[in-house]
Structures are given as structure tokens and as C-alpha cells.
Design a protein that fits this description.
192 residues, 5 helices, two-stranded parallel sheet, mainly alpha
Length: 192
């Protein structure tokens, strides 16, 4: 009886382990979506405004440099004519002066580009952080478990178009930006 008892217990344990192994696991479904981040940045009003702002600033700052470059070119042209008339000593001195001014102009142009890239980069970084907050809120409000991003740094290699929420988010960020812009405009007008 002792051996029979041990066999029965072994069979019982074996049966329990088989039943527990065959127990179906619950498959949890996740609600997912993706955003085409490149398209979002292309169609976002705020992003377009930042881009436009820095294009205009570049034209403004570049205009001043262009004026200086044209003046330098004119002096370089007259330098060639005057070099023979005024002698070698004058030509060497004036040539060095023109070279220094050309170099200063190049440094100014590089400095301007770096300044514009830095400023616009900071604004775009702030915009990206702002949009991440919008994505998080949207995801929570709509009950998403995951929202992926596509675009230049794609993290989604394939998804059905029905999971694309990019247009919804473009509308949201543009509406928020427009309403914020209107508030700022009314504050400016009320101060006048």
C-alpha cells in the first residue's frame, strides 16, 4: 500500500502539472497607433511659423552681409585698376586689407549661420518636447497602450493606414497653436 500510495500521489502531481501547463493564457490586446512625425512637422502651423521666422531672419542678416560683399567686390575691381597706377607698395597694403575684410566677412557669415542654426534648433527642440506632451495626453485620453512614430527616424516599419493618427494630431497641435497665438495677440492689443 505504501508503494501504491506513492504512485497515486505521483500520478496526481503529474496530472495537476499537465492541467496547469495546458491552461490557456490570456492574450491581452493592445490599442496602438502611429504618427508620421515628418508629416506632422511639415504640416504643423507652429513648425511652419518657426521655419518662416528663421528664413526671414536669415534674409535680413544676410542682406547686411551681401551689402558688405558687394562693396568689397567693387573695391577689389577698382584695386586691380589702381594697382598699376599707385605702385607695388600700395597694392600690397591694399591687397592685404581686402583679404582681411574678405576673411572677416566669411567669419561673419559663419557666425550668422551658427547663430541661426542654434536659435532655430532650440525652438524646434522645444516644439518637439511640447508635441511629446500632446502625444502623451492624446494617448491617455483615447486609451492607447502604444503610439509609435514614423518619419525620418522610423520606429514602425509597417502599419495599416487605419492606425495612422497623424492627421488627428496635426489638427490638435494647430488648434492649440492658433488658440495660444490668439491669446497672445489679445494680450498685446490690450496692453496698447
Amino acid at each position: 500500500m505504501n508503494n501504491n500510495f506513492k504512485i497515486k500521489i505521483a500520478i496526481l502531481i503529474f496530472s495537476i502539472s499537465i492541467v496547469s501547463c495546458n491552461k490557456p493564457t490570456e492574450a491581452k490586446s493592445f490599442k496602438t497607433a502611429y504618427i508620421d512625425t515628418s508629416k506632422l512637422m511639415e504640416e504643423s502651423t507652429e513648425s511652419k511659423d518657426i521655419e518662416s521666422k528663421y528664413k526671414n531672419k536669415s534674409v535680413e542678416m544676410g542682406g547686411e552681409l551681401k551689402t558688405q560683399a558687394v562693396k568689397l567686390q567693387k573695391e577689389a575691381s577698382s584695386f586691380k585698376q589702381n594697382a598699376m597706377e599707385k605702385g607695388q607698395a600700395w597694392a600690397q597694403q591694399k591687397g592685404q586689407e581686402l583679404q582681411q575684410r574678405e576673411q572677416q566677412l566669411q567669419y561673419a557669415q559663419q557666425g550668422m549661420l551658427q547663430q541661426l542654426q542654434g536659435e532655430s534648433g532650440n525652438e524646434m527642440d522645444s516644439l518637439v518636447l511640447k508635441y511629446k506632451k500632446v502625444f502623451k495626453k492624446y494617448g491617455k485620453d483615447k486609451g492607447y497602450d502604444y503610439i509609435y512614430g514614423t518619419g525620418e527616424a522610423a520606429t514602425v516599419l509597417y502599419a495599416k493606414d487605419s492606425y495612422d493618427i497623424t492627421n488627428d494630431l496635426i489638427k490638435i497641435v494647430n488648434q492649440e497653436y492658433t488658440s495660444t497665438s490668439k491669446k497672445v495677440d489679445t494680450k498685446k492689443q490690450s496692453k496698447k
